[in-house]
């Protein structure tokens, strides 16, 4: 894809956004685990999603011929992050109520919002790529 018509968010390519998103998830998981002094592996769930996401973004940059596959897999991870964040609503209906475990629920809220936002950006990027391909097809045939 030409650099001038590439889908960008705040001047960043979607591959770079994917690396940043994955890195933020990793950082969030580590910080929440340290700050909350959690002995539970579940506090690292954002990091578990962030590592493959960041790696997929990095691999997309390193292997542009496989970019489409890597970015589609990264989009699936973004959707999984969003779906994991939906667990926040289960806590709302429990007898202890929302934020009875503030760090866990903050992580769920963070995953819900960030995963939803990343998924939205992925969809916009894919739509942009499809429109660009259709435009290039019309240009070649016309």
What are the salient characteristics of this protein?
142 residues, mainly alpha, two-stranded antiparallel sheet, 5 helices, 2 strands, 73% helix
What share of residues are in beta strands?
under 5%
How many DSSP E strands? 2
Q: Which residues form runs of ≥5 with pLDDT under 50?
A: none
CA radius of gyration: 18 Å
**Beginning-to-end CA distance, first to last residue:** 20 Å
Summing up helix and strand content along with how strands pair, one would put the structural category as mainly alpha
Q: Please report the number of helical segments.
A: 5
So what's the oligomer here? single chain
Q: For the largest beta sheet, what order do the strands appear in spatially?
A: 1-2
Number of domains: 1
Overall 3D form: elongated
Task: Note the main sheet.
Answer: 2 strands, antiparallel
Helix content percent band: over 70%
Average pLDDT rating: 90
Order of helix and strand elements from N to C terminus: EEHHHHH
